[in-house]
Amino acid sequence: MAEECSQATQTQTQNSQVEWSQHNTPTIIPNIWGRIYSTKGRHCWKEVTSSESPGYYDLIKPEFTLGRALNCSFVMKKDIIKDDIIKNVSKLHFVLKRDTSEPLSPAIITDLSYNGTYVNNVKIGKGNSRVLDDNDEIAITHPVVKIFVFKDLLKNEQDKVPKEISQKYYISRTLGQGACGLVKLVVDKTKCVQYAMKIIKKSRLTNGHMNNLNDPAKIMNEINIMKALRHPCIISTEEVYDSPDTVYIILELMQGGELFERITKHGHLTERLTRFMLRQMVLAVRYLHSKGITHRDLKPENVLLEGKEEETLVKITDFGLSKFVGEDSFMKTMCGTPLYLAPEVLRANGTRCYGPEVDVWSLGVIFFICLVGYLPFSADYKELSLRDQILSGRFRFSQAHWRGVSPAARQLMKRMLTVQAARRITLDQILQHPWMQDAEVTARVEELLCRNIQSRNVMELTISSTTFTSSEEDTSSNTDNTTVIAVMAKGKRALSDSYSSCEPIPKKLRVDMFPMVVCEPDGEDTSSGHSAAYSVE
Description:
The protein has 13 helices and 25 strands. It has helices at residues 2-10, 83-86, 163-166, 216-228, 259-266, 271-290, 343-348, 357-372, 386-392, 399-402, 407-416, 427-432, 439-455, and strands spanning 34-38, 56-59, 63-67, 74-75, 94-97, 107-111, 117-119, 122-123, 129-132, 137-140, 146-152, 169-178, 181-188, 194-201, 205-206, 209-210, 237-242, 246-252, 293-294, 303-305, 314-316, 323-324, 394-396, 516-519, 525-527. A hairpin with a 5-residue loop joins strand 10 (137-140) and strand 11. Helix 6 (271-290) crosses helix 13 (439-455). One of its GO terms (molecular function) is ATP binding.
C-alpha cells in the first residue's frame, strides 16, 4: 500500500481522468490540506489503462463529497466503478470536512450512507463521524471495497506524544502555556469530541532550579484528587497517561475561557451575574471541603466557563497545590498565587498551621474583582508591601468603583476578607447571606447543575502506569470515592519573599485612584484617608 502511494506521488504531475482533475487551476499553488489516493483495489475499480486510472485527488476546499449524485466532488460512475459496487452506493455516501480556518484542525469523515463507510475495516455508521489519520484506508459498502488512502498534508504533533495517546486522540493547537507545562486541544478520533490535554513535565527546570511542583509525587497527588471528584462545578477528567518523564491529563474542554477574561472584557460583572458565578464557586469549594480537600490556589484564572453565553456553568480547575486534609493533619506549606493568599498562609512560615478557611479568603478576592474589576491587593500599591497589605487586611477602596455596589455586597466582601480566620464567614454562611438570596438566580443555577448531572457520562479514570510514591507525602483515595484518606504534610517550607510558585506571573488589572481601607476582623472598616493613582498593567 505504501509503495502504491509513493508511486502515485511520483506521478502526480501526470494528467488524470476528468473526474479527478482540478479545473481552472490558478497560477498560484493552492493550499492543499490533504490528498486521497486510489487503491486500485480489484474489488472496486474496473480495469482501466494507467492513463485512465483515477490516481489521486487533491483536497483543497473545506468539504469533499462522494456518491452517485452529480454534484458530488467525486461522482461514482459506471465506467470506472464495478456494477455490483455502484448499485450499493448512496447518492451522497460520505463527506470529508476540514476547518481550514482553524490551525491544526482534524479531517473528519461522516458516513451518510445506508450500506456503510469504513475506515481501516471499521464501520463508521450512518450519521456518525470519526477523525481521519494519515494513511487511513477508506472503504464503501463493505470492508474489502477499499477505494482510497488518505494522506494528511498538514503538520500536526501526533509524533510528539506517546503512541497510546496519538492512536486515540488527534493532537491540535495549543490552548495555553504556563511554567508547569502547556495545554493542547485534542479530539477523540472515534467520538469526534474535543478535550483539553494538560501536559506536565515531571522534572522541568525553571531558571536553572528544579520546579518542586513538578515532581512525580505532587503530580500524582493532583491526579488522585481529580480522580475522586464528581461535581458539575469541578472540571472532570477523561483519562490520565503516565509516561516516564511526562503526565498527560485529558480534561473536559471549557469553551467559555477563564473567568478572568470575562471580567476584563466587561470591566466588571453586574451584581446579579456575580451572584450567579459566586454561588457556583461556593458550591464547588464546599464540595471540595466535604471531601477533605483544600484548593489553596483559587483565582479567576482557575475558574473556567463552560460556554460563552452570559449565564453558564463555572468549573474550578488546577489542583496542583491541593492536599488531602483530615482531622489530624494540617497544612503548613506556604504556596499559592500571592495576590490571592490568605493572611494565615503568610503567617504559617512552614511552622504554623492553617485550614480550609484560606479558600474563603481567595473567593473573597475573586468576589471583589468581579464586583469592581480591580485587585484589592497588589505589590504595585506602594504604601505597604503586598505581604503587609494582606496581613493587615488593607485593600484598595475606590469610591468611584464601589459607589454602585449595594451595601449588602460590600458587607459580604468584608466578611470574606476578614483577617482572623476564626471570625471569617463560612461557606454555608455565604450561601445564607442576605445578598445571596435571589430565587431566580438559585433556580437557574440548580437547573444548570441538574442538566449537567443528567448529561454527564462519567467514565473510569485510567492511569497508564504505576502510581508514584514519595518519602514526604502519600495520597490515596478509595476506589468507590466515598472517603478520602487523610494525609499528613510532613515537609515544611519556609516563608519566601518571592512567594515561589510554579504559576506564571499573575495576570493583573488596570486601576485608577483607590484610597486605602482597613478591613477589621469584625467586618468594620476604617479609612486611612489616603489616596493615590496607580496603574497596574
